[in-house]
Design brief:
The chain is α+β, with helices and mostly antiparallel strands. The chain folds into 2 domains: 16-160, no CATH class; 165-339, Phosphatidylinositol 3-kinase Catalytic Subunit, Chain A, Domain 5, CATH 1.10.1070. 41% of the residues lie in helices and 18% in strands. A hairpin with a 5-residue loop joins β4 (109-115) and β5. The longest helix has 21 residues, at 262-282. The two termini are 26 Å apart.
Length: 341
């Protein structure tokens, strides 16, 4: 059963209740520059990778009279994102490049920042704010083992760069590594699959997640991290929320079928659900707040809501899903089940 995205996702504006939440938890910041301002570039060139392949990104340039102010504003955003607005770091930073993605729906800007003291560099992204993506980022920060740094400013969304090997590149270049530990890798994919399904983050094919590799003194540890949150609780088919059903992930699925038993898979699913439930208790106030806001918001259509609640009611044999009227209520019901099972 393959997971298929039905059609182009509709973006949803941040409503007043979500904005109040973002202000309360200090995600909303008054920035000097916004996504639409960055569209006013005067020139651009194609960006190629080290092998000479078109990356489908372009590097953009601004009029010299505007560049100083734009770059200062971008460095200030980075300070808000990384050091809670401490502007003393600005003198050590420079904007090396501003890139625009030319494929996909969101057309994000990617800013490359360089520390002039040690030439270390980092990235962050500026996008049009979509409520679905904000919910996805916030749920990731609360319910996953990964912290996510992001900011909103009106209709602009700023996200940190999530480091790791892109999933498609990992499958192409690393699955044949003699030092690969297939059992550990597959275990982490099972846990990633469970996280996505419980909190209903969709479209996690290999281009939308990265693999973080951490060598230890005896072993290598892996972690799968989502990098695209546009499909948070939008689609109606439950398989869209299960990375195991995307054909782009088949290489890891086949590895799991070779090295994992159904008993071990079930064990790792239970482990991950227990960990999510623990995070939910620790972050109870924030989790309750975001789920209450999300439950009253419109982030999908009635057709998808009806389809998903029916699929999940059947999957979990839990009729409470049939009473859900919004995607947020479905997510809330899914998370509440963690304390039942």
């Amino acid at each position: 059963m393959a997971a298929l995205i039905s059609k182009k996702k509709i973006p949803y504006l941040i409503n007043a209740n979500l904005r109040d939440y973002l202000v309360k938890y200090q995600r909303e910041v008054q920035l000097q520059i916004h996504y639409t301002d960055l569209l006013r570039f005067s020139n651009a060139i194609t960006l190629y990778d080290r092998n000479g392949n078109d990356t489908l990104w372009i590097s953009v340039f601004y009029d010299p009279s505007d560049t100083v102010d734009i770059f200062l504003a971008l460095k200030t955003i980075y300070a808000h994102l990384k050091v809670d607005g401490d502007l003393s770091i600005l003198k050590h930073l420079s904007v090396d490049r501003v890139d625009l993605c030319t494929y996909g729906n969101t057309r994000p800007f990617r800013i490359r920042i360089v520390n002039q003291i040690n030439d270390n560099f980092d990235y962050f992204y500026i996008k049009n704010a979509d409520a679905s993506r904000v919910y996805g980022l916030e749920l990731e920060d609360i319910f996953s083992p990964n912290q996510v740094s992001y900011l909103t400013s009106g209709e602009t969304l700023v996200e940190e760069h999530i480091a790791g090997i892109p999933g498609d590149m990992f499958m192409k270049n690393h699955l044949s590594d003699p030092y690969l530990n297939p059992i550990r890798l597959c275990k982490e994919f099972v846990k990633f699959n469970e996280r996505c399904f419980v909190r209903l983050l969709g479209d996690m094919h290999s281009s939308n997640f990265v693999v973080d590799i951490t060598p230890d003194f005896e072993e290598i540890y892996y972690r799968f991290r989502a990098i695209d949150f546009d499909q948070q609780s939008y689609e109606g088919k439950k398989t869209v929320y299960m990375p195991q059903y995307f054909k782009q992930n088949n290489s890891i699925i086949e590895l799991g079928m070779k090295y994992m038993t159904s008993e071990s898979v079930r064990q790792y699913q239970i482990e991950e659900r227990t960990q999510i439930a623990t995070r939910m208790r620790i972050e109870k106030s924030r989790a309750d707040d975001i789920l209450d806001v999300m439950s009253d918001d419109v982030i999908s259509n009635s057709e998808y809501i009806a389809l998903l609640r029916r699929d999940l009611a059947r999957h979990y044999r839990h009729q409470a899903f049939m009473e859900c009227q919004t995607m947020g209520q479905i997510v809330k019901t899914s998370l509440q089940l963690l304390s039942v099972h």
